[in-house]
User: Fold this.
Amino acid sequence: MKIAWLLALGAALAATPRQGVKTIAVSSVVLPRDFRTLPRPRAAFDSLIAGQLRGAGFTVVPPQVSESIWLRVRDSVGGFYDTYTGKLIDEKWEAVHTATLRELRTRHHVDGWLHPSIRFVGAPFTGGKVKWHGVEQTSGAAGGLGGFLFGTKTGSVPALSLVTMLEDTAGKELYVGLGGIELAARIEGGRFVDIPRASLLGDGSRNVNAVHLALDSLPARLAAKPGP
Amino acid sequence: MFRSRVRLTCLTFTLALVAAAGSGVGAIKIIAVSPVEIPDGLADPQPARALFDSLIAAELMRAGLTVVPAHEADVIWKRLVDSVQGFYSALTGELVETKYRAVMTGTPRELRDRFQVDAWLRPEVELLSVDFEGGKARWDGTSEGMGSGSSGSAPALSLVVSVLDAAGTEIYAGRGGIQVVRKGSKEVSRDKLFKDSKRNLQAVHLAIDSLLARVRVSQ
Assistant:
Protein backbone atom coordinates (compact mmCIF):
# COMPACT_ATOMS: atom_id res chain seq x y z
CA MET A 1 0.00 0.00 0.00
CA LYS A 2 2.79 2.32 1.03
CA ILE A 3 4.81 1.42 -2.09
CA ALA A 4 1.82 2.00 -4.34
CA TRP A 5 1.32 5.41 -2.76
CA LEU A 6 4.98 6.32 -3.28
CA LEU A 7 4.85 5.16 -6.90
CA ALA A 8 1.75 7.25 -7.50
CA LEU A 9 3.40 10.27 -5.92
CA GLY A 10 6.51 9.76 -8.06
CA ALA A 11 4.45 9.52 -11.23
CA ALA A 12 2.51 12.64 -10.29
CA LEU A 13 5.75 14.54 -9.63
CA ALA A 14 7.15 13.45 -12.95
CA ALA A 15 4.06 14.46 -14.92
CA THR A 16 3.14 17.71 -13.19
CA PRO A 17 5.41 20.76 -13.28
CA ARG A 18 5.64 22.46 -9.91
CA GLN A 19 6.99 25.63 -8.35
CA GLY A 20 4.92 27.67 -10.76
CA VAL A 21 7.04 26.60 -13.77
CA LYS A 22 4.54 25.46 -16.37
CA THR A 23 5.81 27.04 -19.57
CA ILE A 24 9.45 26.71 -20.58
CA ALA A 25 11.16 28.53 -23.43
CA VAL A 26 13.91 26.37 -24.89
CA SER A 27 16.99 27.62 -26.69
CA SER A 28 18.45 25.62 -29.52
CA VAL A 29 21.24 23.38 -28.26
CA VAL A 30 24.66 25.02 -28.43
CA LEU A 31 27.23 22.74 -30.08
CA PRO A 32 31.03 22.80 -29.75
CA ARG A 33 32.75 24.82 -32.47
CA ASP A 34 33.71 21.68 -34.47
CA PHE A 35 30.04 20.71 -34.84
CA ARG A 36 28.44 24.12 -35.47
CA THR A 37 28.08 23.58 -39.19
CA LEU A 38 26.26 20.28 -38.70
CA PRO A 39 22.47 20.89 -38.59
CA ARG A 40 21.56 17.25 -37.88
CA PRO A 41 22.78 16.91 -34.27
CA ARG A 42 21.23 20.25 -33.31
CA ALA A 43 17.83 19.37 -34.75
CA ALA A 44 17.95 15.92 -33.15
CA PHE A 45 18.73 17.23 -29.68
CA ASP A 46 16.26 20.14 -29.97
CA SER A 47 13.52 17.67 -30.80
CA LEU A 48 14.48 15.21 -28.04
CA ILE A 49 14.61 17.95 -25.41
CA ALA A 50 11.25 19.42 -26.42
CA GLY A 51 9.72 15.92 -26.38
CA GLN A 52 11.13 15.16 -22.96
CA LEU A 53 9.77 18.42 -21.49
CA ARG A 54 6.32 17.92 -23.02
CA GLY A 55 6.30 14.38 -21.67
CA ALA A 56 6.96 15.79 -18.22
CA GLY A 57 3.91 18.06 -18.55
CA PHE A 58 5.51 21.37 -19.48
CA THR A 59 4.33 23.68 -22.24
CA VAL A 60 7.30 24.29 -24.53
CA VAL A 61 8.02 27.55 -26.36
CA PRO A 62 10.26 26.56 -29.30
CA PRO A 63 13.81 27.87 -29.86
CA GLN A 64 12.81 30.15 -32.75
CA VAL A 65 10.88 32.39 -30.33
CA SER A 66 13.67 33.12 -27.84
CA GLU A 67 16.20 33.32 -30.65
CA SER A 68 14.27 35.97 -32.59
CA ILE A 69 13.76 38.09 -29.44
CA TRP A 70 17.44 37.69 -28.50
CA LEU A 71 18.72 38.75 -31.94
CA ARG A 72 16.37 41.72 -32.15
CA VAL A 73 17.36 43.02 -28.70
CA ARG A 74 21.05 42.32 -29.38
CA ASP A 75 20.93 44.29 -32.64
CA SER A 76 19.13 47.15 -30.91
CA VAL A 77 22.12 47.67 -28.57
CA GLY A 78 24.64 47.25 -31.41
CA GLY A 79 25.95 43.90 -30.20
CA PHE A 80 27.63 42.95 -26.95
CA TYR A 81 31.19 42.19 -28.02
CA ASP A 82 34.16 44.51 -27.78
CA THR A 83 35.28 45.10 -31.38
CA TYR A 84 38.90 45.54 -30.24
CA THR A 85 39.27 42.33 -28.23
CA GLY A 86 36.37 40.13 -29.33
CA LYS A 87 35.47 39.71 -25.68
CA LEU A 88 32.00 39.85 -24.22
CA ILE A 89 30.91 43.13 -22.60
CA ASP A 90 29.12 41.80 -19.53
CA GLU A 91 26.85 44.81 -18.96
CA LYS A 92 25.57 44.81 -22.52
CA TRP A 93 25.05 41.04 -22.52
CA GLU A 94 23.14 41.28 -19.24
CA ALA A 95 20.90 44.02 -20.67
CA VAL A 96 20.03 41.80 -23.67
CA HIS A 97 19.49 38.80 -21.40
CA THR A 98 17.17 40.67 -19.05
CA ALA A 99 15.16 42.22 -21.87
CA THR A 100 14.75 38.82 -23.55
CA LEU A 101 13.54 37.22 -20.31
CA ARG A 102 11.09 40.09 -19.80
CA GLU A 103 9.64 39.70 -23.27
CA LEU A 104 9.42 35.91 -22.96
CA ARG A 105 7.44 36.38 -19.75
CA THR A 106 5.12 39.17 -20.87
CA ARG A 107 4.40 38.02 -24.44
CA HIS A 108 4.70 34.25 -24.15
CA HIS A 109 3.88 33.66 -20.45
CA VAL A 110 7.15 31.82 -19.97
CA ASP A 111 8.11 30.80 -16.43
CA GLY A 112 11.59 29.46 -17.20
CA TRP A 113 14.20 29.48 -19.98
CA LEU A 114 16.17 26.33 -20.67
CA HIS A 115 19.66 26.54 -22.17
CA PRO A 116 20.98 23.21 -23.45
CA SER A 117 24.56 22.83 -24.67
CA ILE A 118 26.85 19.99 -25.72
CA ARG A 119 30.35 20.35 -24.33
CA PHE A 120 33.69 18.63 -24.42
CA VAL A 121 34.57 17.39 -20.93
CA GLY A 122 37.44 15.40 -19.45
CA ALA A 123 36.04 11.97 -18.52
CA PRO A 124 38.10 10.19 -15.87
CA PHE A 125 39.20 6.65 -16.67
CA THR A 126 40.84 3.86 -14.73
CA GLY A 127 42.14 1.12 -16.99
CA GLY A 128 39.60 0.24 -19.63
CA LYS A 129 36.58 1.92 -18.05
CA VAL A 130 35.43 5.51 -18.41
CA LYS A 131 32.55 6.74 -16.26
CA TRP A 132 31.19 10.26 -16.47
CA HIS A 133 27.87 12.06 -16.07
CA GLY A 134 25.84 8.88 -15.65
CA VAL A 135 27.28 6.80 -18.51
CA GLU A 136 30.05 4.29 -18.96
CA GLN A 137 32.19 3.37 -21.98
CA THR A 138 35.44 1.53 -22.61
CA SER A 139 38.49 3.74 -23.13
CA GLY A 140 40.63 1.37 -25.17
CA ALA A 141 43.32 1.36 -22.44
CA ALA A 142 44.39 -1.92 -20.86
CA GLY A 143 42.04 -3.10 -18.13
CA GLY A 144 41.17 -6.38 -16.47
CA LEU A 145 43.91 -8.99 -16.96
CA GLY A 146 45.83 -6.67 -19.34
CA GLY A 147 45.82 -3.97 -16.69
CA PHE A 148 46.93 -6.45 -14.03
CA LEU A 149 49.86 -7.59 -16.19
CA PHE A 150 50.96 -4.28 -17.74
CA GLY A 151 49.76 -1.74 -15.20
CA THR A 152 46.45 0.09 -15.00
CA LYS A 153 46.42 3.52 -16.60
CA THR A 154 44.46 6.42 -15.17
CA GLY A 155 43.71 9.87 -16.47
CA SER A 156 41.03 11.66 -18.38
CA VAL A 157 39.86 11.28 -21.94
CA PRO A 158 37.88 13.82 -24.04
CA ALA A 159 34.14 13.12 -24.05
CA LEU A 160 30.88 14.87 -24.93
CA SER A 161 28.16 15.68 -22.40
CA LEU A 162 24.81 17.41 -22.59
CA VAL A 163 24.43 20.25 -20.10
CA THR A 164 21.03 21.80 -19.40
CA MET A 165 20.45 24.93 -17.33
CA LEU A 166 17.03 26.34 -16.45
CA GLU A 167 16.66 29.89 -15.21
CA ASP A 168 13.54 31.70 -14.02
CA THR A 169 12.39 34.98 -15.56
CA ALA A 170 14.45 36.94 -13.06
CA GLY A 171 17.57 35.18 -14.34
CA LYS A 172 17.94 32.97 -11.26
CA GLU A 173 19.32 29.49 -11.91
CA LEU A 174 16.72 26.86 -11.01
CA TYR A 175 18.29 23.67 -12.32
CA VAL A 176 21.44 22.24 -13.89
CA GLY A 177 21.44 18.73 -15.39
CA LEU A 178 24.25 16.69 -16.95
CA GLY A 179 24.11 13.70 -19.24
CA GLY A 180 27.13 11.95 -20.73
CA ILE A 181 26.81 11.28 -24.47
CA GLU A 182 29.92 9.51 -25.76
CA LEU A 183 33.70 9.55 -25.86
CA ALA A 184 35.32 11.91 -28.37
CA ALA A 185 38.63 10.00 -28.34
CA ARG A 186 39.88 6.51 -27.60
CA ILE A 187 43.17 5.27 -26.25
CA GLU A 188 45.09 3.23 -28.80
CA GLY A 189 48.66 2.11 -28.21
CA GLY A 190 48.99 4.51 -25.28
CA ARG A 191 47.85 7.56 -27.30
CA PHE A 192 44.61 9.46 -27.66
CA VAL A 193 43.06 9.00 -31.07
CA ASP A 194 40.23 11.39 -31.95
CA ILE A 195 37.01 9.81 -33.11
CA PRO A 196 36.06 11.43 -36.46
CA ARG A 197 33.71 14.36 -35.75
CA ALA A 198 31.27 13.22 -38.44
CA SER A 199 30.65 9.94 -36.62
CA LEU A 200 29.90 11.61 -33.26
CA LEU A 201 26.42 12.59 -31.98
CA GLY A 202 24.79 10.19 -34.43
CA ASP A 203 23.91 7.38 -32.05
CA GLY A 204 20.19 7.84 -31.39
CA SER A 205 20.06 5.71 -28.25
CA ARG A 206 23.05 7.49 -26.67
CA ASN A 207 21.49 10.87 -27.46
CA VAL A 208 18.15 9.85 -25.93
CA ASN A 209 19.91 8.54 -22.85
CA ALA A 210 21.86 11.81 -22.43
CA VAL A 211 18.65 13.86 -22.64
CA HIS A 212 17.06 11.63 -19.98
CA LEU A 213 20.08 11.97 -17.71
CA ALA A 214 20.15 15.75 -18.12
CA LEU A 215 16.41 16.35 -17.66
CA ASP A 216 14.79 13.45 -15.80
CA SER A 217 15.24 15.05 -12.38
CA LEU A 218 13.99 18.49 -13.48
CA PRO A 219 10.33 18.09 -12.36
CA ALA A 220 11.34 16.69 -8.97
CA ARG A 221 13.93 19.44 -8.47
CA LEU A 222 11.37 22.14 -9.24
CA ALA A 223 8.90 20.51 -6.90
CA ALA A 224 11.46 20.63 -4.10
CA LYS A 225 11.99 24.37 -4.48
CA PRO A 226 9.70 26.89 -2.78
CA GLY A 227 7.20 28.64 -5.05
CA PRO A 228 7.79 32.05 -6.60
CA MET B 1 82.66 5.76 -54.75
CA PHE B 2 82.31 6.76 -51.08
CA ARG B 3 84.13 10.05 -51.70
CA SER B 4 81.84 10.98 -54.60
CA ARG B 5 78.78 10.25 -52.45
CA VAL B 6 80.14 12.55 -49.72
CA ARG B 7 80.82 15.22 -52.33
CA LEU B 8 77.26 14.88 -53.64
CA THR B 9 75.84 15.17 -50.12
CA CYS B 10 77.95 18.27 -49.44
CA LEU B 11 76.82 19.80 -52.71
CA THR B 12 73.16 19.08 -51.91
CA PHE B 13 73.56 20.61 -48.42
CA THR B 14 75.27 23.71 -49.82
CA LEU B 15 72.55 24.16 -52.43
CA ALA B 16 69.92 23.86 -49.68
CA LEU B 17 71.68 26.54 -47.62
CA VAL B 18 71.97 28.83 -50.63
CA ALA B 19 68.28 28.32 -51.32
CA ALA B 20 67.46 29.16 -47.68
CA ALA B 21 69.64 32.26 -47.84
CA GLY B 22 67.85 33.39 -50.95
CA SER B 23 64.42 32.99 -49.38
CA GLY B 24 62.64 35.67 -47.34
CA VAL B 25 64.11 34.44 -44.05
CA GLY B 26 67.69 34.48 -45.32
CA ALA B 27 67.44 38.10 -46.41
CA ILE B 28 66.56 39.43 -42.93
CA LYS B 29 68.88 42.11 -41.54
CA ILE B 30 66.44 44.37 -39.67
CA ILE B 31 63.54 42.85 -37.77
CA ALA B 32 60.66 44.44 -35.86
CA VAL B 33 59.25 42.57 -32.88
CA SER B 34 55.77 42.97 -31.42
CA PRO B 35 55.17 42.71 -27.66
CA VAL B 36 54.55 39.11 -26.56
CA GLU B 37 50.85 38.34 -26.26
CA ILE B 38 50.00 36.62 -22.99
CA PRO B 39 46.82 34.55 -22.54
CA ASP B 40 44.01 35.77 -20.31
CA GLY B 41 43.89 34.48 -16.78
CA LEU B 42 47.36 35.49 -15.64
CA ALA B 43 47.03 37.89 -12.74
CA ASP B 44 49.62 40.33 -14.11
CA PRO B 45 50.79 39.67 -17.68
CA GLN B 46 53.33 42.51 -17.70
CA PRO B 47 56.31 40.73 -16.04
CA ALA B 48 55.92 37.69 -18.34
CA ARG B 49 55.62 39.95 -21.38
CA ALA B 50 58.71 41.95 -20.40
CA LEU B 51 60.66 38.74 -19.73
CA PHE B 52 59.98 37.14 -23.12
CA ASP B 53 60.29 40.48 -24.95
CA SER B 54 63.81 40.84 -23.63
CA LEU B 55 64.80 37.18 -24.15
CA ILE B 56 63.66 37.25 -27.77
CA ALA B 57 65.29 40.61 -28.52
CA ALA B 58 68.57 39.46 -26.95
CA GLU B 59 68.69 36.27 -29.04
CA LEU B 60 67.90 38.15 -32.24
CA MET B 61 70.64 40.73 -31.56
CA ARG B 62 73.11 37.98 -30.65
CA ALA B 63 72.47 36.53 -34.09
CA GLY B 64 73.52 39.86 -35.64
CA LEU B 65 70.10 41.28 -36.46
CA THR B 66 69.08 44.87 -35.88
CA VAL B 67 65.94 44.82 -33.72
CA VAL B 68 63.30 47.54 -33.88
CA PRO B 69 61.90 47.76 -30.32
CA ALA B 70 58.50 46.27 -29.55
CA HIS B 71 56.77 49.58 -28.79
CA GLU B 72 57.29 50.78 -32.38
CA ALA B 73 55.35 47.88 -33.88
CA ASP B 74 52.82 48.20 -31.07
CA VAL B 75 52.11 51.89 -31.82
CA ILE B 76 51.58 51.21 -35.54
CA TRP B 77 49.41 48.15 -34.84
CA LYS B 78 47.17 50.03 -32.39
CA ARG B 79 46.71 52.98 -34.73
CA LEU B 80 45.69 50.70 -37.59
CA VAL B 81 43.29 48.77 -35.33
CA ASP B 82 41.75 52.14 -34.36
CA SER B 83 41.38 53.04 -38.02
CA VAL B 84 39.07 50.03 -38.58
CA GLN B 85 37.46 50.47 -35.11
CA GLY B 86 38.60 47.00 -34.05
CA PHE B 87 38.55 43.88 -36.18
CA TYR B 88 36.03 41.83 -34.22
CA SER B 89 32.30 41.78 -34.88
CA ALA B 90 30.23 43.48 -32.17
CA LEU B 91 27.40 41.03 -32.88
CA THR B 92 29.25 37.71 -32.81
CA GLY B 93 32.67 38.42 -31.30
CA GLU B 94 34.25 36.73 -34.32
CA LEU B 95 37.10 38.08 -36.39
CA VAL B 96 36.14 40.20 -39.41
CA GLU B 97 38.60 38.90 -41.98
CA THR B 98 38.72 42.01 -44.21
CA LYS B 99 39.46 44.34 -41.28
CA TYR B 100 42.04 41.95 -39.85
CA ARG B 101 43.84 41.65 -43.20
CA ALA B 102 43.96 45.44 -43.50
CA VAL B 103 45.77 45.69 -40.16
CA MET B 104 47.97 42.64 -40.80
CA THR B 105 49.23 43.93 -44.14
CA GLY B 106 49.33 47.61 -43.13
CA THR B 107 51.59 47.06 -40.11
CA PRO B 108 54.58 45.43 -41.90
CA ARG B 109 54.23 47.90 -44.79
CA GLU B 110 54.53 50.84 -42.41
CA LEU B 111 57.36 49.15 -40.50
CA ARG B 112 59.25 48.77 -43.76
CA ASP B 113 58.60 52.39 -44.80
CA ARG B 114 59.61 53.87 -41.45
CA PHE B 115 62.35 51.51 -40.22
CA GLN B 116 63.38 49.62 -43.37
CA VAL B 117 62.57 46.32 -41.65
CA ASP B 118 62.84 43.12 -43.64
CA ALA B 119 60.59 41.12 -41.32
CA TRP B 120 58.16 41.41 -38.44
CA LEU B 121 58.18 38.87 -35.62
CA ARG B 122 54.96 38.29 -33.66
CA PRO B 123 55.41 36.25 -30.47
CA GLU B 124 52.62 34.82 -28.36
CA VAL B 125 52.39 32.64 -25.26
CA GLU B 126 49.70 30.12 -26.12
CA LEU B 127 47.63 28.05 -23.72
CA LEU B 128 47.04 24.60 -25.19
CA SER B 129 46.04 21.11 -24.17
CA VAL B 130 48.84 18.50 -24.17
CA ASP B 131 48.67 14.74 -23.78
CA PHE B 132 50.77 13.00 -21.17
CA GLU B 133 51.71 9.35 -20.95
CA GLY B 134 53.78 7.37 -18.44
CA GLY B 135 53.80 10.38 -16.13
CA LYS B 136 55.43 12.67 -18.71
CA ALA B 137 54.01 15.34 -20.98
CA ARG B 138 55.87 15.98 -24.24
CA TRP B 139 54.97 18.91 -26.48
CA ASP B 140 56.59 21.51 -28.74
CA GLY B 141 60.12 20.20 -28.18
CA THR B 142 60.01 20.02 -24.41
CA SER B 143 58.80 17.63 -21.72
CA GLU B 144 57.73 17.81 -18.08
CA GLY B 145 57.03 15.24 -15.37
CA MET B 146 53.37 14.91 -14.38
CA GLY B 147 53.53 12.24 -11.68
CA SER B 148 54.22 8.55 -12.24
CA GLY B 149 51.99 6.02 -13.98
CA SER B 150 49.41 8.44 -15.27
CA SER B 151 48.15 9.51 -18.66
CA GLY B 152 45.62 12.02 -19.92
CA SER B 153 45.67 15.62 -21.00
CA ALA B 154 46.62 18.83 -19.22
CA PRO B 155 46.80 22.55 -20.04
CA ALA B 156 50.27 23.84 -20.88
CA LEU B 157 52.00 26.95 -22.22
CA SER B 158 54.08 27.30 -25.37
CA LEU B 159 55.86 30.23 -26.95
CA VAL B 160 54.64 30.58 -30.54
CA VAL B 161 56.32 32.90 -33.02
CA SER B 162 55.35 33.91 -36.51
CA VAL B 163 57.57 35.97 -38.83
CA LEU B 164 56.08 37.94 -41.71
CA ASP B 165 57.78 39.70 -44.59
CA ALA B 166 57.01 43.28 -45.54
CA ALA B 167 54.07 42.12 -47.66
CA GLY B 168 52.48 40.43 -44.64
CA THR B 169 53.21 36.88 -45.83
CA GLU B 170 54.27 34.41 -43.17
CA ILE B 171 57.83 33.26 -43.88
CA TYR B 172 58.56 31.42 -40.62
CA ALA B 173 56.68 29.82 -37.74
CA GLY B 174 58.21 28.26 -34.63
CA ARG B 175 57.08 26.87 -31.30
CA GLY B 176 58.69 26.06 -27.97
CA GLY B 177 57.03 24.43 -24.98
CA ILE B 178 57.34 26.36 -21.69
CA GLN B 179 55.57 24.48 -18.88
CA VAL B 180 52.37 22.72 -17.88
CA VAL B 181 49.88 24.71 -15.81
CA ARG B 182 48.11 21.80 -14.11
CA LYS B 183 49.48 18.59 -12.62
CA GLY B 184 46.78 16.08 -11.72
CA SER B 185 44.04 18.06 -10.04
CA LYS B 186 46.42 20.78 -8.85
CA GLU B 187 46.74 24.04 -10.74
CA VAL B 188 50.28 25.40 -10.83
CA SER B 189 50.13 28.56 -8.75
CA ARG B 190 50.09 31.72 -10.91
CA ASP B 191 53.13 33.11 -9.10
CA LYS B 192 55.13 30.01 -10.12
CA LEU B 193 54.54 30.51 -13.82
CA PHE B 194 57.55 31.63 -15.92
CA LYS B 195 59.86 31.41 -12.90
CA ASP B 196 62.11 28.70 -14.35
CA SER B 197 64.63 30.71 -16.35
CA LYS B 198 66.09 27.58 -17.99
CA ARG B 199 62.70 26.53 -19.33
CA ASN B 200 61.92 30.08 -20.50
CA LEU B 201 65.20 30.38 -22.41
CA GLN B 202 64.81 26.90 -23.84
CA ALA B 203 61.34 27.82 -25.13
CA VAL B 204 62.79 30.87 -26.89
CA HIS B 205 65.54 28.76 -28.46
CA LEU B 206 63.08 26.11 -29.59
CA ALA B 207 60.86 28.77 -31.16
CA ILE B 208 63.46 30.86 -33.00
CA ASP B 209 66.70 28.86 -33.39
CA SER B 210 65.72 27.52 -36.82
CA LEU B 211 65.05 31.09 -37.94
CA LEU B 212 68.41 32.30 -36.62
CA ALA B 213 70.27 29.39 -38.23
CA ARG B 214 68.86 30.36 -41.60
CA VAL B 215 69.70 34.03 -41.02
CA ARG B 216 73.32 33.15 -40.04
CA VAL B 217 73.78 31.11 -43.19
CA SER B 218 73.03 34.16 -45.32
CA GLN B 219 75.45 36.44 -43.46
